[in-house]
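Support request, please re-run this one:
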Amino acid sequence: MEDVKEFGVYAEDLKELTQWLLDTNIETVAMESTGTYWQNLYSTLQEAGIKVILVNGKFTKNIQGKKTDVKDCQWIQKLHSIGLLTGSFLPDDHATEQLRTYCRHRSNLIDVSADTTRKMQKYLRLLHLRLDVVVTDITGLTGLAIIEAICKGETNAEVLSSHRHGKWRKK
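Re-run finished. Output below.
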């Protein structure tokens, strides 16, 4: 298909696009899953009864020369028309989407926690406190107890070492 038509991103634009596809007897559409931009269009097309194949962008990247949206859409349309595209996994129900959201959120929290721990180690080093050398985990019971004592003004190494729990790493 040589016709390329551009549409906006608002709800009325998506409805106009859907109607144009229906008017031109389009039954299936392949689209790239980029960020969250695809979601509203995807649901609008599905509600209209158009079969939508959501494609991972890494399977459509093969355009030589300057990349444009028009070239992208033409390439995806060509791949789709000869059956070379397969759809991405989409959750089938609310529970799967909810689990996926929880897993992503957990992963983000772990990343933030790891970044925070690295920053704590950095700032302790800048204060000439090498707590990471004598405890396994500065955010464990021993590490946090020692940091809390230091924040309260304790500087005596023997008093600080009395806060240990479990194994103590010797230097």
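The chain has a mean pLDDT of 87. Residues 94-126 form the longest helix (33 residues).
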